[in-house]
Write a sequence for this structure.
């Protein structure tokens, strides 16, 4: 126990206690009154026997009760405090993790989530904050509330109003986003005062990061520790970080961590769906994977998932992995749901389902613009295309890009560097707005390439030698609204790149394939097929790309002025598309299928967790932050400081009421 204002309580006691005792020493001054007899005034006669101004102090229960009441009041003014874990600081920063793994229900018989427990413990912390002292003798505890998942948000600025903090805690909702604590500490830093000095050399005010002019705070982090960015999270200098470990460290889970659909290149109606699983259980588990197709069949496969393997020297066991492949004939558009069906449900339901929206199968319609390239024409004819039109550069019109899925340019001679809106494959040329050195041509070899890109799948460029490769400038950023992604890097700069603009997308080989040894390699035909398939649309391969925490970006028909989006949980949110029909919505909170509706038409977007980190839900016993290692605490130890002055004032009133009762009883006697 400690005292917040011990000096005030002592000062009042020094003045008030002697004053009260002196009052009992003083003789009462009586008024002379003539009476017929003193027989009935024995008490008055006893008081009149003392002629001195002071009388002898006698045992008096009223004096004892009044001294007790005064002692209790002085103790209340001293503000005794019992510290129950809230820390010495009067400033608190409460961080609540609401990421996907906080939806786990481990260790709770009633099935409440980790997030619910974290909110409950944070509520107890706030309820135990110290109040302001009587007569404003001391400050109350103040706190700021930050919630985070993939990003962080300040839900309440620093305040001493506990009711406001408690209401903000109740408004926290769960998400399926991954957890990243770095942004949360950045926000905490941003809301703290900085030490600033004037730099005479630059003539500017300079902030010293990590140094503060304000009072240190206690950071209360409620999380299971399944966080990215912890090693980069920098607490403010002087702040104390308290990590409350929510959840059990040995909780096992099986989740879907990969989901992909592919159509056969030769037979697009053949649909193959791959479902990848991860298990953190100690032993082997058998589960069923149910594949449901809207307005279509349902398939079930039994999968044996190996258990987690302990790795020597590693803090955590390596999760076991497995996968299952479904093959079916499905040419029409499909909405696919993959679900884990286990004998007993695990602690996390968020990763037990995955969704894909697969467009209808179709072959691409391609127009080939060339002055005459028999080899390229033969290679394109060998692809399973719905239509291949071959025209000369002089016959090409910009409107043709709307009539065909892909325009293949055999060089840009006679076309110009400004390509029309649409999707293009440019073989030998550098379109605008990318800058290059036309005089810097020379022989080059490939150093590295992006094998993960759809256009580069199964492409091998190890032996590729190019002549006449212009020096493309990767440093000079394209114009506003354009983005350039290098797919193959040579010793002279980018050789193959992707260029995306406001209304166009192009895959470009800056060199002429005819001036290289590539046409004699089978990987060239593979590249043509992959690039055309990628540009023609996603129907050849559908990846579950959208994740919770991402922003959903799409496009509706030009001229549509309003649209609405329906999240998986229901409800409806209005969207206002831009002039070209593009829209954005997010960040996305929950996994599932989002419907974008515009009148009679609709688009579906699948959002999946698919996170090996979030599916590994065993809580961490400690966190390694950028500047400190923090050990986890049991959340049940959460409590604030208990300030007892209110209860002492109430006790003082009780004593005074008892003294009043005793006084009245004595008068009646």
């Amino acid at each position: 126990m400690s005292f917040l204002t011990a000096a005030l309580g002592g000062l009042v006691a020094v003045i008030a206690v002697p004053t009260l005792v002196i009052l009992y020493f003083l003789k009462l001054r009586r008024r002379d009154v003539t009476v017929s007899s003193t027989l009935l005034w024995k008490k008055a006669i006893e008081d009149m026997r003392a002629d001195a101004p002071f009388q002898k102090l006698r045992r008096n229960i009223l004096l004892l009760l009044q001294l007790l009441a005064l002692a209790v009041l002085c103790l209340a003014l001293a503000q005794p405090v019992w510290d129950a874990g809230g820390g010495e600081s009067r400033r608190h920063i409460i961080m609540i993790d609401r990421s996907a793994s906080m939806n786990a229900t481990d260790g709770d018989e009633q099935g409440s989530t980790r997030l619910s427990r974290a909110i409950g413990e944070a509520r107890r912390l706030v309820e135990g904050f110290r109040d302001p002292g009587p007569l404003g003798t001391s400050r109350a505890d103040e706190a700021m509330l930050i919630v985070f998942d993939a990003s962080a948000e300040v839900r309440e600025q620093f305040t001493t109003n506990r009711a406001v903090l408690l209401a903000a805690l109740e408004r926290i909702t769960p998400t399926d986003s991954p957890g990243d604590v770095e942004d949360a500490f950045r926000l905490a830093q941003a809301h703290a005062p900085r030490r600033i000095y004037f730099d005479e050399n630059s003539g500017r005010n300079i902030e010293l990061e990590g140094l503060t002019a304000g009072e240190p705070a206690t950071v209360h982090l409620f999380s299971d520790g399944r966080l990215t960015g912890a090693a980069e999270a920098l607490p403010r200098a002087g702040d104390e970080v308290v990590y409350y470990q929510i959840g059990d460290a040995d909780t096992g889970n099986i989740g879907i961590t990969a989901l992909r659909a592919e159509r056969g290149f030769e037979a697009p109606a053949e649909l193959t769906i791959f479902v990848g699983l991860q298990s953190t259980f100690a032993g082997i588990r058998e589960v069923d994977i149910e594949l449901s197709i809207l307005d279509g069949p349902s398939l079930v496969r039994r999968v044996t998932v190996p258990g987690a393997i302990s790795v020597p020297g590693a803090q955590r066991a390596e999760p076991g992995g497995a996968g299952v492949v479904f093959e079916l004939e499905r040419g029409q558009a499909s909405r696919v749901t993959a679900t884990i069906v286990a004998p007993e449900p695990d602690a996390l339901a968020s990763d037990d389902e995955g969704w894909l929206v697969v467009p209808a199968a179709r072959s691409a319609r391609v127009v080939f613009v060339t002055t005459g390239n028999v080899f390229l024409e033969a290679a394109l004819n060998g692809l399973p295309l719905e239509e291949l039109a071959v025209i000369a550069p002089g016959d090409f019109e910009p409107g043709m890009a709307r009539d065909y899925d892909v325009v293949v340019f055999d060089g840009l001679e006679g076309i110009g560097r400004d390509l029309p809106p649409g999707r293009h494959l440019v073989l030998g040329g550098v379109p605008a707005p990318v800058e290059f050195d036309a005089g810097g041509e020379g022989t080059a070899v490939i150093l590295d390439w992006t094998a993960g890109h759809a256009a580069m799948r199964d492409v091998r460029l190890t032996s590729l030698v190019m002549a006449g490769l212009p020096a493309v400038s990767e440093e000079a950023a394209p114009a506003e609204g354009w983005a350039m992604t290098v797919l193959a890097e040579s010793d002279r700069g980018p050789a193959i790149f992707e260029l995306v603009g406001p209304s166009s997308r192009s895959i470009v080989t800056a060199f002429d394939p005819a001036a290289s040894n590539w046409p004699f390699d089978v990987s060239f035909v593979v590249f043509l097929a992959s690039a055309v398939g990628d540009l023609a649309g996603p129907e050849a391969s559908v990846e579950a790309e959208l994740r919770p925490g991402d922003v959903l970006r799409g496009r509706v028909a030009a001229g549509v002025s309003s649209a609405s989006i329906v999240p998986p949980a229901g409800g409806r949110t209005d969207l206002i598309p831009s002039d070209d029909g593009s829209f954005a919505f997010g960040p996305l909170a929950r996994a599932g299928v989002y419907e974008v509706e515009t009148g009679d038409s609709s688009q579906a977007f699948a959002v999946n967790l698919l996170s090996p980190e979030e599916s590994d839900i065993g809580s961490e016993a400690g966190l390694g932050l950028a500047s400190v290692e923090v050990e986890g605490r049991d959340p049940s130890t959460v409590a604030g400081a208990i300030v007892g002055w209110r209860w002492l004032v109430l006790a003082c009133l009780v004593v005074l009421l008892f003294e009043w009762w005793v006084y009245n009883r004595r008068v009646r006697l």
User: Anything to note?
Assistant: The radius of gyration is 38 Å. The first strand starts at residue 2 and ends at 3. The first helix runs from residue 6 to 25. The mean pLDDT is 82.
